[in-house]
Structures are given as C-alpha cells and as structure tokens.
Amino acid sequence: MRAVVLHRFGAADELRLESTPDATERTGWVVVQVRASALNWHDVLVRQGVYRSPLPHVPGADGAGVRRDTGEPVVVLPSLHWGTDQAAPSAGFQILGDVERGTYAELVAVPAECAVPKPPGLSWAQAAALPLVGVTTFRALFTRGRLAAGESLLVLGASGGVATSAVTLAAAAGARVVVTSSSPDKVDRAKALGAADGVLHTEHDWVDAARRCTPGNAGFDLVLDPVGRWNEAVRALRRGGRLVVLGASVNDTARMDVRSFYFGQYDLLGTTMGSPADFAGLLSFMAETNAPPPVIDRTFPLDAAADAHRHLESGAGFGKVVLDHV
C-alpha cells in the first residue's frame, strides 16, 4: 500500500509518500480502506517527535473509508482503548497515529469499535474531518463543560477545527457563542457559522471587550480554551463559571492567582479526545439538531501531505485540512 512515512522527526519535508506493507487484521481489529484523512495539530506534534512515536511511522488520527471485511462505509474514531470509565481514559489509552500506524495511508487497522458507520449525507472529506475534533469538542462542551441552552460560551480562537466545531455545535444547542481571533475576517466567518459576536485577541483589552458581549458585562458561563491562555480565560468568566482546557498550542504553562480563583467559585476542567460513548452522543446530537458538518478549509492529495502540514502550521486556514486518498 501507499502511505506517508516519517523516518525521522522534524519539519514537514520529512513526510514522504512510500510503498509499505499492507495493514493487516488481527483479533478484534478491522482494516479500513481509507478514502480521506484529516489533519490535526496533534499530527504536527507527532511529526516533531513530541509523542516519541516509533520510527519509521505513519502519522494520522482522522480518517474515513470502507471496511474491507464488510464493505461498510465508516469513519475512524482515533480514541483507542478508552476503557469503561467515562470520567477519564484508561492507562492504556492511545490516540491513533501515536504508536499505532495512522490514517495517512491507503489502509489502516483499528479496533472494531473504532470503525463507526459513516453518517449519511457527509462527503468523504467531511466524514474524515469529523472524529477527532468532533468527539473532542462534544466532550469538552457537553460531557465536561455541561453547556446548556441559553448559556453563553466564549471560544478562544475562531479558525481551527475545534473552534469551528465548537461554534456550530454550541449554536445548535441554543447557546450564545462569542469567539476571539487575530483576524476580523475570521470573526466574520465564525459569525456566518452561528457565532453571535467576536473580538480581536490582539487588542490589549480583549477580555473586557469579550465580557461586554455578555448580559450586564458579567462574563461567560463557559470558556473553551484550546490554546492555553488560562489567565485571560478565567478573567472572562462570570463568577461560578467553568473553564474547559483542551490544548496548549500558545502556552504550555500558566500562572494563576489562587485566591481570586477560589473566591470566584470557578471550575477548571481538563479534557482531551473522548470515548466511544461521547462519539455516539455527538452523532445523535448532529442527527437531532441538524448541526452542520465540519468546515473544510482545503483538500490536498495524499502525496502532498508535507504541503498540507505547512498550510496547517501557517495558521492561514479556516476549518479542517484534508488529504484526499482517491
């Protein structure tokens, strides 16, 4: 089979399309013929060696295709070995593409529970773009964040896969969504997806500007932070509000004032990925609310995976970057 192979960690140029042995079935696992795969920032970290993946390695967490044993169209849930505890993953939890070879290939092997029937109406690109950001965002907003209709949500960032997914899912749930961005154009595009307002986080007073988007300037019920800006995020909350943290692309450490945190009665919630039950909840939610599919920014052919990574890292896109395997 053809696959994008990483022989050493480093820049995007290290991703090369090669011929490799076929993925094979094993007990409890199935092989999926991949029609499309989607990029995530997680893939960049794998490429850079942050997760110390075994080399040579095939990256990629997200994908959609056809089960070779049944011919059924499926999406690949990249949450491997979650376990039975819905509160947190098991000690054996992995994200597909960390240790196991991933979806930047014509074939990928996954546990049978991770080959989920493809939702009707989604293109291959949309189906491939759904699993990681979809299940991650659903768990962050609803399982962990307890977002309810009528509440206010601030999403830090307006253009990435998690951010665009958060806007569409939260708006479909009846929440009032505000986003931050460095680009007025991206704020406008988030509004087109369902955000009520947006502010530029390049401005020194952006937290105050965001709070002015809430009733009585009281602050938000929930803030979703996929970048690691905890200090500003907590200041944007109403008293008793919840902060859900699911990324560290801007900061991987944070200093916080402890007294103001506990006097504010805030909740600080960490999350990543989601369980098969979370993914089932996402699919049911999308069917019940007619929430729109993932936003696709650009599609690249499989042999242009390096170009796709460079585009993702540029920050110029809006939505998901997808590799077309057909």
TrEMBL record:
One of the record's GO molecular function terms: oxidoreductase activity
Pfam families per UniProt: ADH_N, ADH_zinc_N
Domain spans labelled Enoyl reductase (ER): 10-323
Protein's name in the database: NADPH:quinone reductase-like Zn-dependent oxidoreductase
